[in-house]
Amino acid sequence: MTGTAQSTGRPGSVREAAGGLGALTLATFVAITTELVPVGLLPQISSDLEVTESIAGLLVTVYALMVAVLAIPLTLGTRRLPRKGLLLCTLVAYTVSNALVGIAPSFGLVAAGRAVGGIAHALFFSLSIGYASRLVLPQVTGRALALVTAGASAGLVLGVPLSTALGIAIGWRNGFLVLAAGCALATLLVALLLPPVSAADDARHPEHTRTDRRTRLGAVSAANTLTYLAQYTVYTYVSVILLATGLSETAVGPVLLGLGAVGLVGTAYAALSLDRNPRRGTLVVHAVMALALLALGLVFPSRVGVLVAAAVWSGAFGAMASVFQAAAIRTRGGSPDVIGALVNATANIGIGGGAALGALVLVGPGLGALPYAGAGLVAVSLVVIAVARRAFPAGIESDE
C-alpha cells in the first residue's frame, strides 16, 4: 500500500486513496451483481421453479425490501463498530446468499437465500458510501464516489450479463454458485487492500444549520427514490422486453453486456461533472433518461428501436448512483454512514417498489406500458430536482 491516505485512512487526494477506492470498487461490483443477477435469469428461474415471471421478479423485491427496512436501523446499531470488519462481514454474507440460492430446491428457500443477501446489502452500501467519502478530501468527493460507483456499472456491464450468459449455458443454479465463489475472492482481496477508517461520527454542525441540511437531504432522498422506482419498474423486466422484440434467449446476455457498457459513459460523465457543476449534470441525465424511456415505449416492439432507446436510457442511468451519493453527502445532513444508509434505503425502496409496480403493469396494461410508467416517474423526479435548488446546487458548498 502506498500514500498517506492509503496507509492511514486519513482523507487525501483520489490518487493517494487509490488502493482503498479500488478495493471498494471491487466490492461494489460483486454487491451489485448479487443484487441484480435474477434480472437476466428470470425466464429460467420462473420455468425451473414453476412460477410466473412476475412472481420470479419478486426475488428482486424481497432483496430490496430487506435493504429498505434494515439499512438505517443496522447502520445506527453498528455505528461504533470497526468499518472494515463490518464491510468484510457483508461480503461473507453475499457469498452465503448466492450459495444458498444455488442449492435451494424451492422458490421459498431461494427467496430466503435472497433475504440473506438483502440483509448484507442493507449495511454494505451504507458502509461503502461513507467509507469512500472518508478516504478523500471534500472537494473530490464526487470523483471518488464516481470511481466506486464504477464498480456498480461494471456489475451491470460484466457481472449481470456474464452471469446471465453463464446461467443460460450451465444452468442458473450453477451461475449463482460461480458468483458465490467470486464473492469469496472479493472478500479476500478487500481484506488485503482496504485501509481502516474511524467509525466516529464527523463533526456536528450548528443547530441553526441542521434543519436546513436535513431538509436538503430529504429532497435528495425523495428524488433518489423516484429515479430508482422509474428505473426498476422497467429494468427488472428488461429481459422480457428484449425477448418480446424477437431477440433470442442466447442473445439477451450479450445485449445486456452492451447496455451496461453504455452505462459506463454516464458514470464517466458523472465523474467529470459532479465536482464542477453538479446541478447541470443532474438535470441533464434525468432529462435524457426520461426522453429515452418515452422513446422506448413509442418504438416497442421494434427490435432496432428498442435497442437504440435502451442504450440511451442505460447511458443516462449510469450516472445516477454517483449523482445521488455525492448530492446526499454534500448536504451534510448527518454522518457519512447515516447518509449512506438513507441513500441505500431509498434506492432500494425504488428498486423493490419498481419490481412490484412493474409486475402490476405486466398483469394490467401489459409489457408495452412499462416504459411509459418509467418515463412518468423520472419526470416527477426531474421536477423535484428543479425545485430543490439548494439540495442540488450548481457549485460545491464550503463548510459553514
From TrEMBL:
Keyword tags: Cell membrane, Membrane, Transmembrane, Transmembrane helix
Membrane topology, as annotated: Multi-pass membrane protein
Gene Ontology molecular function, alphabetical: transmembrane transporter activity
Subcellular location: Cell membrane
SUPFAM superfamilies in UniProt: MFS general substrate transporter
Residues of the signal peptide: none
Residues of the Major facilitator superfamily (MFS) profile domain: 20-391
Pfam families in alphabetical order: MFS_1
Gene Ontology, cellular component aspect: plasma membrane
Domain of life: Bacteria
InterPro entries given in the database record: MFS, MFS_dom, MFS_Efflux_Transporters, MFS_trans_sf, Tet-R_TetA/multi-R_MdtG-like
Protein name listed in UniProt: MFS transporter
